[in-house]
Specification:
- The protein is an all-alpha fold.
- It has one domain.
- Helix content is about 75%, strand content about 0%.
- It has helices spanning about 1-25, 35-55, 55-65, 70, 80-90, 95-120, 125-155, 170-195.
- Helix 1 (about 1-25) packs across helix 3 and helix 2 (about 35-55) packs across helix 3 (about 55-65).
- The two termini are about 20 Å apart.
- Mean pLDDT is about 90; it is low at about 195-198.
Length: about 200
């Protein structure tokens, strides 16, 4: 019962956060962010999420009890990489961001599908597969964030698409969740390898 109420609370807070991100994007507030503000917002939201995961006993307990596949499933949204490629073909996103980042996200999302089909990471090789995917996925996300930051500082107009809906949800909602999920999953997998509960 307690776990169910915790899941409801997390879903309600997540839905509220998503709603705020959509409203801010639709109202054009996100568009007003000038470099280096977008990556600062992204990093701040990620830090808050991770801080809650480690400092809030109820949220931390809920995350520890969560099936690992629920930490992988949000990464299916990384098929947004296809949209990056489309926007590059329309000359609306630069190659340096859209093509490496787009293909990196497509690979991460496709590997997430494989992990979800394989089931939770119980066997040793299976945990290694989850861990390798998580390291790759995190590295790809950090590459995308750093590339967007670098290009945005040099030419803010080149990354303007990321400040308009639907892509404005990346820095204000989705990417903080994805980065946090990689770090939380990695910590759980490493604790399990050390003999602690998964």
């Amino acid at each position: 019962m307690r776990r169910a109420s915790g899941a409801r609370a997390v879903l309600l807070i997540g839905a509220g956060w998503l709603l705020v991100a959509v409203v801010l994007g639709a109202a054009g507030v996100v568009r007003l962010l000038e470099p280096p503000a977008p990556p600062i917002v992204l990093c701040g939201l990620t830090a808050v999420l991770l801080g809650l995961a480690w400092a809030h006993a109820g949220f931390g307990e809920w995350l520890r009890a969560l099936d690992a596949r629920w930490l992988v499933a949000p990464h299916l949204t990384r098929y947004v990489g296809i949209y990056f490629l489309y926007l590059h073909a329309q000359d609306r996103l630069p190659y340096a961001f859209a093509v490496p980042g787009g293909w990196g996200d497509i690979v991460a999302a496709s590997l997430a599908v494989v992990l979800l089909l394989l089931g939770p990471p119980r066997a040793g090789w299976h945990r290694v597969a989850y861990l390798v995917w998580s390291v790759y996925g995190l590295a790809d996300l950090l590459f995308v964030v750093l590339t967007a930051s670098r290009l945005g500082l040099g030419d803010p107009a080149s990354m303007a698409e990321l400040l308009e809906l639907p892509l404005s949800l990346l820095p204000t909602f989705l990417v903080p969740i994805l980065i946090a999920s990689h770090l939380i999953l990695g910590a759980r997998l490493l604790r399990r390898r050390a003999g602690e509960d998964f």
